[in-house]
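Minutes, project check-in
Item: structure for the 121-residue chain
Input as provided by the requester:
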Amino acid sequence: MLFVATSLLAVSCKKDTTVKLTGTQWVGKVTIGEFNGSYYMSFLTDSTGKMDVSLRGGGEDEDFTQPFTYTFDGKETGVLNIDEDIADTFHYSAENSTITVYLNPEEVEEMTISSIVFHKK
């Protein structure tokens, strides 16, 4: 009986390490040649979000918002779908409070970057 009670106590005291991204905001910055990009990623629900993008340089400034869907394992890996045809993987680091988005090769043909590191806002 003591063994059963001890086992139940140990199971009930385990810390839930599931991470929820809903309601969080993240900032990423990228420089490619003369262009500077600022990315503001907001996770709105447990499967949707938006990316506010500000691109500066080359005499052409552009600001736009791109909605996205995502899946996340609640620990460290997920998939971000900004376009129906393009999926980017991402890695969440609780230790560094970062999300690294690994860009799909189809997106980076003309760019010199393969990932964007976002810091929690």
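Outcome recorded: The chain has a mean pLDDT of 86.
No further action items on this chain.
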